[in-house]
Amino acid sequence: MGMIGSLTDREYQKFKATNLGSPAVRTFSVNQLIPDEFDSIILGYTGDDITSVIYKINGTSGDTIATLTLGYSGGNLVSIERT
User: Fold this and answer.
1) Range of the domain at 54
2) Beta bridge partners of 17
């Protein structure tokens, strides 16, 4: 029975309460496009198209956390690359 109790405790860590009081499953993604922590976003445009999204911490002049480069073909968004 002790093993089941510790397993339950470990499994419980996957859940957290929502504002409504019901549990939500905490998920993690290994390959995220958007960083977990940032406080500024700078958008770059080419014509009317957003071609870059720069995520920063410590304001707009702070450190760059990630950059998304958006690719277009015929006016349609076809790719997003994170660096």
Assistant:
1) 2-82
2) 23
67 burial (CB, 10 Å; 0-12 / 13-18 / 19+) is: middle
Residue 55, CA distances (Å) to 19, 27, 31 in order: 27, 22, 16
Q: For residues 66 and 57, is the Cβ–Cβ distance under 8 A? A: no
Q: How many domains is the chain built from?
A: 1
pLDDT digits (tens, 9 = 90+) for 30-77: 667 888 888 999 999 999 999 999 999 999 999 999 999 999 999 899
- Main-chain phi, psi angles of 25, to 5 degrees: -80, 125
Distance in angstroms (rounded) separating the CA atoms of residues 58 and 41: 11
pTM of the model: 0.61
Structure tokens at 23: 């549990």
- The Cα–Cα gap between 37 and 55 comes to 9
